[in-house]
Design goal:
Elements lengths: L2 H21 L1 H5 L10 H7 L3 H14 L21 H5 L3 H12 L3 H12 L9 E6 L4 E8 H13 L3 H16 L7 E3 L1 E3 L3 E2 L19 E3 L10 H17 L2 H14 L13 H14 L2 H17 L20 H23 L4
Antiparallel strand pairs: 1-2, 2-4, 3-6, 4-5
Length: 355
């Protein structure tokens, strides 16, 4: 496929997805779950939807941003009704995305309130961000840090210009890939305070369960079609951003190590709906280095995602669901918002001239 062909197909896919979102606005407006809206400001920013950006800035600030700076459905309920295991394992993941999007669209008042909340989660010793929070006591659980919360917070920190804290968070991502105890078999996502990388994760394979191995570990020994491979793609993207910021080769080398682990997975890795961040990260690394293996990976993933888009503009998350009818509306909404956002970023990255 020629570069021009894939770029035009991607633009059409973005248009189709945005048309679907517009057609569903009435239904979307009825959803009271933060999980349905947290990526919307980022999406509206990168696609230039100014009026809708203003709508979502107001929605998040008025309906979800609490006095403590957290985004929740209510005082005692975080959200993620369709995927309750997510905040249990990655409490501030949605917060980081929301803050980055709000910063991009200029909602600085909301950012000034929301950013300090997630900054409380950064562990001063490791630089990683804690993954758990007790809503009842309003206390961060300092026992575990993970790569997903760290990446989401890092996205917010970079977008908001908090570069010193971002660099420390990036160092945590570097150590997490360098210190893996079984690097040919597993990538463990979580660090246990005072002990090291958390490996007691082999309880069950149910991706919807709180204690599922899949929430804590990517395995080369399992079918990669059903692994949560965004655990590898998001560090690629953010470490690439840190290399762009600092010029320090260690970030580029660590990003490549995440990419090389991804390449150890089975062929199912190329048809995994959690892998858009592999595409996102590989495109960023191509923009920075000009390496053809990064470009090829980004375009291969992008092509599959374009091919798998339903004619109405949506996708099915095959990691959890078998059909569009089975997939909750909020999950469909989340996929469309994320994919279009990352498609827009990838088009930019693939068009950049590397240094």
């Amino acid at each position: 496929m020629h570069d021009g062909d894939i770029k035009e197909r991607t633009k059409r896919s973005i248009t189709l997805g945005m048309e679907w979102l517009l057609s569903q606005e009435q239904q979307i407006s009825k959803i009271s779950d933060f999980a349905a809206h947290y990526k919307a400001p980022y999406l509206m920013a990168v696609t230039g939807q100014r009026e809708r950006a203003a709508h979502y800035a107001k929605l998040l600030e008025k309906s979800y941003l609490r006095e403590d700076g957290d985004f929740r459905m209510s005082a005692e309920v975080k959200g993620w009704q369709h995927m309750p295991a997510s905040p249990g394992n990655r409490y501030i993941y949605g917060n980081g995305w929301a803050i980055a999007g709000l910063q991009k669209i200029g909602a600085y008042g909301a950012v000034a309130k929301a950013l300090p909340f997630i900054q409380k989660f950064q562990d001063p010793k490791t630089g990683g961000f804690c993954s758990r929070y007790d809503i009842a006591t309003k206390k961060v659980d300092p026992s575990r840090m993970d790569t997903s919360c760290t990446c989401s917070a890092l996205l917010a920190l970079l977008t908001c210009g908090r570069f010193e804290a971002a660099v420390i968070a990036g160092d945590f991502l570097v150590r997490m890939i360098e210190d893996q105890p079984q690097p040919d078999k597993y990538f463990f996502t979580t660090y246990e305070a005072g002990k090291g990388i958390f490996t007691d994760v082999f309880h069950n394979e149910d991706a919807t369960a709180f204690n599922s191995r899949k929430h804590y570990c990517v395995s080369t020994e399992k079918d990669a079609l059903y692994e949560i491979v965004w655990f590898l793609g998001m560090p690629m993207k953010l470490l690439g951003n840190l290399y762009d910021l600092t010029g320090d080769q260690k970030y580029l080398q660590a990003a490549d190590a995440y990419f090389q682990f991804f390449n150890k997975l089975s062929e199912g890795r190329w048809h995994n709906n959690s892998g858009t961040k592999i595409m996102w990260g590989a495109a960023e690394l191509y923009a920075l280095t000009g390496r053809e293996d990064y470009r090829a990976a980004a375009e291969r993933y992008l092509t599959w995602l374009l091919d798998s888009q339903h004619e109405v503009g949506v996708w099915v998350h095959s990691l959890w669901y078998k059909s569009l009818a089975e997939q909750p509306f909020q999950a469909t909404l989340d996929l469309v918002q994320e994919y279009i956002s990352e498609f827009s970023d990838v088009l930019y990255s693939l068009s950049r001239i590397h240094n």
